[in-house]
Amino acid sequence: QELRPKSLDIKQEELGDMVEKEMASTSEAIEDAVRRIEEMMSQARNESSGVKLEVNERILNSCTDLMKAIRLLVMTSTNLQKEIVESGRGAATTQEFYAKNSRWTEGLISASKAVGWGATQLVESADRVVLHMGKYEELIVCSHEIAASTAQLVAASKVKAEKSSRNLGRLQECSRNVNEMAANVVASTKSGQEQIEEKDTMDFSGMSLIKLKKEEMETQVKVLELEKRLEGERVRLGELRKQHYALAGAYNPAEDGEVKPAPAPRRGILKKPPLAQKP
Q: Residue 28: which CATH number?
């Protein structure tokens, strides 16, 4: 018992309550996100017009569709989680089932938190874009994070679910719908960004030869600086992900009695055998 991995300052008998609280908290976060998007839509119609209004409406509508898809996903996940507990606990209580499968429970809690956090971040990014204070790239990154969090929630639920479960089938369908809606947010964001940037067309017709050459050299310098900065940020992103995985830890179904397939052996590079030495 002492060697079993412990939760983050949470007693095992409290894990069941934590699952329900996190699912409820995630649902509340999504409901709040839907309300905030509706408020942003009204604000955008009052404060913007023309191309900017068209872009804002398209982006916010896609965000609303994504929030609705996430809300349905969380509801279906909650139903599946209850089904798993009822079918797997036997004569044990719900709390005992969660304590016995603590690693699975912690994975479920972590996935639910990730989904709620992703929804909140998406709304905040959309708010900054509508107010001309944010970057379109933030929305794209948030959409990718939501898709990843959704996959995490489905994987955590799938570990203990029966393959023939209808709720599992519905959850997988909801996951595909979330991914589709997230892709729509990315598409609407990219098209909106292009539409806004087209207003600032580059006109070099009035420049002299010397001025054009100077602008060309300055642009080349900027390109090299951005390429160097991009490489540095990629290295930083890799280190951040390593630290994230080290702190969070990968969920291991084998600890709850599930068989984890062994990784395929890596094929080494075939080396040429050494030539025989002549006597």
A: 1.20.1410.10
Task: Please state, as a whole number, how many other Cβ atoms lie within 10 Å of the Cβ of residue 192.
Answer: 22
pLDDT mean for each 10 residues of the chain (279 residues)? 49 66 82 86 80 85 90 87 77 73 80 86 87 84 90 84 86 91 90 74 69 86 94 94 81 50 51 54
Residues 6+ apart with CB under 8 A from 192: 55, 56, 58, 59, 136
CA separation (Å) from 53 to 43, 139, 228, 243?
A: 10, 17, 36, 41
- pTM for the model: 0.65
Amino acid 9: pLDDT: 45
| DSSP structure string for 229-275 | HHHHHHHHHHHHHHHHHHHH----GGGGTPPPPPPPPPPPPPPPPPP
Residue 195 Cα distances to 55, 57, 114, 203, 226, angstroms: 8, 13, 32, 17, 23
User: Residue 39 falls within a domain, yes or no?
Assistant: yes
Is residue 246 situated within a structural domain?
Answer: no
Q: What is the pLDDT of residue 8?
A: 44
Q: Which residue in 126, 101, 128, 117 sits closest to 150, CA to CA? A: 117
The boundaries of the domain holding residue 145 are 14-198
Identify whether the C-beta of residue 81 lies closer than 8 Å to the C-beta of residue 108. Answer: yes
* Predicted local confidence at residue 252, as pLDDT: 53
Say what the alpha-carbon torsion angle 253, 254, 260, 266 is, to the nearest 10 degrees.
100
Distance, first Cα to last Cα, the chain: 65
Q: Count up the domains in the chain and report the number.
A: 1
Please report whether residue 204 resides in a domain: no
